[in-house]
Amino acid sequence: MPNGQVQHKQKFKEMKKLFLASLFIFLLGCLNHNPTTEFEFDIEEIPEEVEEVEEVTEWDVFVEALIQVESEGNPFAVGKTNDLGILQITPIYVKDVNRILGEERFTLDCRLDISKSLEMFEIYQSYYNPDKDINRAIKLHNPGAGSDYREKILSKINELKHCLNKNSK
Asked: Which of 6, 14, 83, 102 is in the most buried spot, having the most CB atoms within 10 Å?
């Protein structure tokens, strides 16, 4: 396997762990808006993947915010322009990711698979936005969207950060 593909797979595994951790934290703290509710669970019930994660990064929070804005986390969400899945990936996006890889690894059906959608997103962003600039990432993900789309994502990022800070205290 070429070195570039190994690096993509390793980055994807790391991203998946971080995504699971941020999603777990988000679901614990943000989906229940009743501030008097306390969560009771045994520490043994937390999946191992979550225990291995060191820190939720700014990029992880961005990806979760993007998912919430695009699909509210629904892997079967259908958009208005043939975009599907948690990240509302279009057929052109899939084609471009395959072009970047130099092989037909992803099909249109992969858009409904959370792991494959995240992997496509990471490949696309790593190619066009290697510095992981969030403003550039927003524009790359939905080039035709206006400033209101960007503001929605930035607002969701702030909401998630607030929840993460609240839950870490």
From this structure: 83
